[in-house]
Design a protein that fits this description.
By secondary structure, the protein is of the alpha/beta class. The chain has two domains: 49 residues, RecR Domain 1 (Helicase, Ruva Protein, domain 3, Orthogonal Bundle), CATH 1.10.8; 148 residues, Dna Topoisomerase Vi A Subunit, Chain: A, domain 2, CATH 3.40.1360. The protein is 44% helix and 13% strand. It contains nine helices and seven strands. The strands form two sheets. Strands 4-3-5-6-7 form a five-stranded mixed beta sheet. The protein has a two-stranded antiparallel ribbon with strand order 1-2. It is elongated, with a radius of gyration of 21 Å. The termini are far apart. The relative contact order is 0.10.
Length: 207
């Protein structure tokens, strides 16, 4: 692409760095912004700055939050004896949208993937293991996707957590093998959580 403006070219380059955005789409977005009122563009710029500066990771579960402790962990009505392990914030949003789960979460921030150089030490597991060690929780629900990486991470955590007197469950197989939670419809996901099964049973059913 040949640009008549270096500023436009720079904007297109930066927008194209976003996932799923090619240079043609980036150009269309940049031209759209140029046509907007300055107050609208400034509002977008401010929201992006605040996103980077003000959003934190919850110290308790790893969820994204405006405060040190997220609203879910801080809510006294949530059942603090149950923790659902998920990959990232998108899974939290998907489960919360079902309205069927009232426990807490542990957001790992990824899954074990040797191909990408991601091991257990790169994930946010410490708080969960400490809660298990201190007997602060009664049940852990494995809510990771059914991809190979998700299953590997689940099995790793199962081996770690089976050392403690915990109920270890997995969401029911309403989620197809190879699927991610964020893409499941709310009814299917709600039923999968409500009909969760002991993790050992899910292993046997797969073998």
């Amino acid at each position: 692409m040949n640009f008549s403006s270096k500023h436009l070219e720079k904007a297109v380059e930066e927008i194209a760095h976003l996932p799923g955005i090619g240079r043609k789409t980036a150009l269309r977005l940049a031209l759209h912004l140029l046509r907007q009122e300055e107050i609208q563009v400034m509002a977008l710029t401010e929201s992006i700055n605040l996103l980077k500066e003000a959003v934190k990771y919850c110290k308790n579960c790893g969820n994204l939050s405006d405060h040190d402790i997220c609203e879910i962990c801080a809510n006294p009505r949530r059942d603090k004896t149950i923790v659902c392990v998920v990959e990232d914030i998108r899974d939290v949003i998907a489960i919360e949208n079902t309205g069927q789960y009232q426990g807490l979460y542990q957001v790992l921030g990824g899954v074990i993937s040797p191909m990408e150089g991601i091991g257990p030490s790169d994930l946010n597991m410490t708080a969960l293991l400490q809660k298990a060690e201190k007997a602060e929780i009664d049940e852990v629900i494995f809510g990771l996707g059914t991809t190979m990486e998700g299953e590997t991470t689940t099995f790793y955590l199962y081996k770690k957590l089976s050392l403690y007197p915990l109920k270890l469950t997995a969401i029911a197989r309403g989620i197809a093998v190879g699927d991610q939670l964020e893409y499941a419809d709310e009814v299917t996901l709600a039923r999968s959580i409500a009909n969760r099964v002991p993790y050992e049973s899910s292993i046997k059913s797969d073998s």
